[in-house]
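hi!! sorry for the late reply, been swamped w classes. u asked for the two structures so here they r. pasted raw, havent cleaned anything up. first the sequence of the first protein and right below it the tokens
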Amino acid sequence: MARRAERVLMLLDLLRGRPVVTAAILAEALEVSTRTVYRDIEALLAAGVPIRGEAGVGFSLGQGYFLPPLTLTEDEAEILAFGARVLSIWSDGALAAQAEMALTKIRAVLPKAARDSAQREILWAPPWVTRQPPAIDLLQLKRAAQQRRYLRITYETLNGTMSDRTVRPLSLSFFGPVWLLIAWCEDKADFRCFRLDRLRRSAVLDDTFRDEPGKRLADFRRAKGEAVAREIAGGVEHG
């Protein structure tokens, strides 16, 4: 029996190859029970894959879901697979699931040689690395930055003091093994970097902000550069 990721990829290939496929045919081809097929399809639906199902008829993929085959070299395929794997290990459950699904979609449109090369995992990130997963929802923070929505956070400083801030989230940056939230802090009227392992609470507010000169991510990079982020990743306080 194939591993879950391989099985989901095979399921997508089966759906792509026919207009309609019954659960029984999918179960036979994948060598699993129909219950497992339904669970896999529910997972794909939750990830945004447009699968249509009709009782007594079968399942089909939404039109235009698959891209034409990607012209990636074997090296490029391996690098993409490795990057998705690292993100799935060093992030929380929501981002990890997104990374795994992105990898499944990429594999589905790779030429066979590139797909086989990626699945060999010569570049490998072991999944049992000891780590403390972020207590904060990374996907929520990412979407808040994308939608330009203010955050209300509670941050624990190095001396153990709790500080409540209203911030403009600008970027999530990874300095292994530390995740940083780079933000414009309304309370301090300056840029601040917050280690996610010290972020005790985060609430997305309804209020949105506009890009303003002097308060943008590009302004942070010009004014502070990577030096500040690297310092805080090493333990220097910048919150």
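now the second protein. again sequence first, tokens right under
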Amino acid sequence: MRQRTAVVATALTLAIGLTAGCGGEGGGDSADKPRHKKAATSTPVPATPVPATPVPSKSVPATPTPAGPAQPAASAPKALSQAQLEKAILAKSDVPGFDVAPMDAPPPQGERADKSECAPLTAVINGRPEPAAQASAYRQLTGAKDNRPAVSEFLTTHGVQDATTALSRLRAAVEACEGGFRASGGGEGPSTYQGAKALPVAAQVGDDAFAYQVTGDYEGEPVPLVFHVVRSGGTLATFYTANLEGPQTPRIPPALLTAQADKLTKLK
């Protein structure tokens, strides 16, 4: 197992930093390749259901109402700028017990799924959720004691409509790609993903949240990659971690999601 971990970690190192392609055929680990990310704890994720967001109904008055002062139409929240994102993304002072370091942006071209319905999954693996973001910021968070867990975060601003669309597409992609898929074009050999599945979210925060696992394939062995995506207005906070030591689903600390959602809420 140590040898497997070392080999997978080496492959991940080539992918980390959002600067290299998603790595070679050894499959999933390249799979683990959200190339800007690192290994993490293998503690199972606690079950927490995601409630559906109720849609307010509109009622039309049966009789005319007296005319009053004209009311301005409700406008969508303004998308955060690059400078605002850099201030909004998690910092060391926000998450006691974690070290936080900046990461470079990913290259414009990443790997592409062989099935169009799986494209939203590779977009996130590439560090570029779709629809394309107007601005993005990237951080690596590691436990201050022994660098565990290791979690990568990217904060992207899309506008409310596109951010909502992104989560909708991810949900559909996880369902459509349950049986696995392959991807290529990340700078190394093709990658194999054994499957995808939805997970309970670590914390009920933001306007919407979705968690899922994409299982990479390293020489026939599963490499679980876990993503938690939180929407706050038109901004998406995506957290990623991987288990390089076994098939158990790694855990993302709920405190990270809560801290990020709180910072974003204050900007609304």
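hope this helps!! also noticed smth abt the second:
The first strand starts at residue 98 and ends at 102.
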